[in-house]
Amino acid sequence: MNEDKRLSVEALRSLAQEQDAFVAQRPRSTDAIAEEAMRRSWKPSRRMRLVPTFAAAGVAASVAFVVAFFVARAGRNDLSFEVAGRAGQAGTSLTAQTGAPLPLRFSDGSVLVFQPGAQARVARLSDNGAELLLDSGRLMADVRHTGQARWSVTAGPFRVRVTGTRFEATWSPPDGALTVAMFEGSVVVEGPTLGRGLPLRGGESLEVGISSPPVVTRTRPAPTVATPEASPPSVRPEPPPPATADTTVTAGSHTQASWSDLAGNRRYADALVAAEHEGFSRLCRQLDASGLLALGDAARYASSSGRARQAFEALVRRFPRDQRSHDALFALGRLESEAGAPVSAAKWFERYLATARNPPLAEEAAGRLVEIYDQEGDAEAAVRAAKGYLDRHPDGPRATRARKVLAGHEVRR
Amino acid sequence: MRLVRGLRDHEPWAAAVLVDRYIVHVRRVLMRVLGAGESEIDDLVQEVFTRALAGAHRLSFAGALSSWLTSIAVFTGRETIRRRSRWRWLWFTADPPERPAPQASAEVSDAARAVYALLDQLPIDERIVFALRAVDGMDLREVAAACKVSVPTVRRRLARAERRFHALAAQCESLSAWVRSS
């Protein structure tokens, strides 16, 4: 029995090794987990507390909604459209040939004109709007404002929500760049770098990329572009005049709160938009150390690693002796590590450890150096990092890894 | 201490450091309690850190962070086991097959499934103590801290769990063979 028990203990410990192999994988970003945990626990939502109370009512309402939806759907009249005088069909791919724009006239009076070379589809029609997919190129839209119009233009990961307006959207898939120029009305643009959506109004233009922050340019109102009444869609609309910028500022021109207030409320995406509006580069030149650290953190949590790097580097450059510049050094290491640049990350972590005698995140930095050098196959640096780690943190969470590195080195010798 | 202060002051950097520093530890504890191939593991990790931040104001010193997170992970794992038990009772069915652990041999994964299938038959408190002690190798004081009970209570639970586990394992042919081959 004792022998069996000893064996089973060994067997059970081998399960632990199997589990550890699984644990070592990190399927999600730790920042995403931290951000979600903060959102859920440090800012308690009243709505969450009300959920149990109204759960039964919610179920009943859902049933009613589904019934109402199908009843309403049965009796509705979806919009229709014509392409160059012929009935168009949802789902069909449309291409504007070189040299001639392709107009689409909808039954509610709205007109879309695809500029030469543009490719698009009308994905879906409803009784008060349509969903368009702009595969590439430029689209000019004049959507009839009915009070209930619901149109959208999807371009890559971005979506322009429209209620009634005149605007132009250009999507360049190779660059991942979207440009929206507003002539009248308003739209909301949604996308990966736009937080909860960026509202645009007449006279504003937006340039945004998949990984670059949004930039809004305020321009003088454009002259009237072709409307259905004034100019039939078969007539090529005049392109808008070049934007004459009054102020080339930044996104979030409608945001009232300052970036620091928004960051303080953990609305990082909004904070970044507001910071862009205030002038991100100017902030990097003018903020004090504390502000720069907060700005970098806000950008990092808003998933804008480029802006975060800019703020942290400004902090390190302008306030090298400030305690917060040490934090920025570590943050820069993390950013490089997350960006898949371990060698650059190691430089920042080395600098972090060298700058202060016993910085608060010394264990993390030293441990990451062990991991990076070991993964990169730099045996000499890995051994040096492992020794350094064990000298300072013999019982640290990465001590096992450090000992393995040293043991592996001994075996090789 | 700075980290604890940061957590108490709801500093975002402190939350990021806490997750970064302890995510492996939390995942490991959850895996021990629930078993390898746990398909909900990421959601549970999220839950543990959410609870941790919600209770951060009660933290007093940095040395307690690891055991504090362990106890939250154990508590979260215990809730998950209870939820599964209720589910089975309500629907008279087993859970869907779990995701196999990558990089593990088929033999070990089968053994893992078999071990945790046996542990499913133990009372929750005994199962958790057994998993932390026998699989993870925690010492009795660590197990007691994680389960928030005394060391003598851990000893009693462990003794009962071992008796039950070995009795069940003896009836499980594949597990017996694996134990012998280990």
Task: Provide a descriptive summary of the structure in words.
The complex is a heterodimer of chains A (413) and B (182). Chain A has 413 residues and is of the alpha+beta class. Chain A folds into 2 domains: 81-248, Sandwich (Jelly Rolls); 259-412, Tetratricopeptide repeat domain (Serine Threonine Protein Phosphatase 5, Tetratricopeptide repeat, Alpha Horseshoe). Chain A has 13 helices and 14 strands. In chain A, a hairpin with a 2-residue loop joins β6 (119-126) and β7 (129-143). The longest helix of chain A has 29 residues, at 46-74. Chain A is elongated, with a radius of gyration of 28 Å. Chain B is mainly α and 182 residues long. Chain B folds into 2 domains: 1-99, Rna Polymerase Sigma Factor, Chain: A, CATH 1.10.1740; 105-182, Arc Repressor Mutant, subunit A. Helices cover 75% and strands 0% of the residues of chain B. Chain B has 9 helices and no strands. Chain B has helices at 2-8, 12-34, 41-54, 65-91, 106-119, 124-136, 140-147, 151-171, 173-181. In chain B, α2 crosses α4 (65-91). The radius of gyration of chain B is 18 Å and the shape is elongated. Chain B starts with a helix and ends with a helix. Mean pLDDT of chain B is 79; it is low at 91-105. Chains A and B meet through α1 and α2 of A and α2, α3, α5, α6 and α8 of B.
Show the helix and strand layout.
The complex is a heterodimer of chains A (413) and B (182).
Chain A: H1 2-23, H2 30-41, H3 46-74, E1 81-83, E2 86-87, E3 93-95, E4 102-106, E5 111-114, E6 119-126, E7 129-143, E8 151-155, E9 158-172, E10 177-190, E11 198-201, E12 204-209, E13 215-219, E14 245-248, H4 259-264, H5 268-278, H6 280-286, H7 289-301, H8 305-318, H9 323-338, H10 342-355, H11 362-376, H12 379-392, H13 399-412
Parallel strand pairs in A: 7-8
Antiparallel strand pairs in A: 1-2, 1-4, 3-6, 4-5, 5-7, 6-7, 7-9, 8-9, 9-10, 10-11, 10-12, 12-13, 13-14
Chain B: H1 2-8, H2 12-34, H3 41-54, H4 65-91, H5 106-119, H6 124-136, H7 140-147, H8 151-171, H9 173-181
Helix pairs in contact in B: 1-2, 2-3, 2-4, 3-4, 4-7, 6-7, 6-8, 7-8
